[in-house]
Amino acid sequence: MESTVMDQVAFQISSSSGGAEDKDIAIDRNGDVWITGEFGGSIDLDGDGEDDLTTNGYEDAYVAKFDSEGNLVRAYDFGNTGYDEANSIAIGSNGNAWVLGTFSGSIDIDGDGTNDLTSSSGITI
Fold first, then answer.
1. How many Cα atoms are found within 13 Å in the side-chain-facing hemisphere of 88?
2. Fewer CB within a 10 Å sphere, N or C end of the chain?
3. Domain of 39?
4. Count of helix runs (H) and strand runs (E) in the chain
5. Per-residue pLDDT reduced to its tens digit, 36-72
6. Nearest to 61, CA basis, from 15, 99, 116, 112
C-alpha cells in the first residue's frame, strides 16, 4: 500500500469547557480534511492552546477544514441558545460542504447574525 500525507496526519480536537464530539470526516478532491461535530463552551481545533470557536448557547455544531498537512484552514460554528449538532458531512465535486444535523428553535447557519432557519416541530433535522 502506498503511503500518503494523509496517512501521517493526526488531529486532536479539545474543548476547554463543555466537551466536544467529532461526528464525521470527509476528504475533498484537493486532499483537504473536513470534520464536523458538536461542542459545548469553546473548542481548540488546531491544538495551539487557543480557542477557535465559542458556542452561542448550550451546544453548537461545528465544521472545520484542514489542509492535507493538518493545518486549520477555517472553522464555522452553527447554533443558537439550545442544543445543536452536526452528524455527517459530504463534500461535492465543486468543493461545497453539505452538513446534516439537528437544531431546535431558530439557527444562523451563515454567520451573519440573522437566523436563517426556524424549526417547526421543536427539533429539525
1. 3
2. N
3. 5-124
4. 0, 8
5. 999 988 888 888 888 889 888 788 899 999 998 889 9
6. 99
Query: DSSP 3-state assignment of 68?
Result: coil
- C-alpha 62/C-alpha 78 separation (Å) is 6
- Residues 57/80, Cβ–Cβ less than 8 Å: yes
Q: Which three cell numbers stand for residue 81?
A: 441558545
Q: By the 8 A CB rule, do 62 and 36 touch? A: yes
Please state, in angstroms and rounded to a whole number, the distance separating the CA atoms of residues 95 and 29.
Answer: 8
Name the grid cell of 78. Answer: 452553527
Among residues of the chain, what percentage have pLDDT more than 70? 82
Q: What are phi and psi of 121, to 5 degrees?
A: -135, 30
CA dist 65 and 73 (Å) reads 5
Model confidence at 92: pLDDT above 90:
yes
Distance in angstroms (rounded) separating the CA atoms of residues 50 and 122: 34
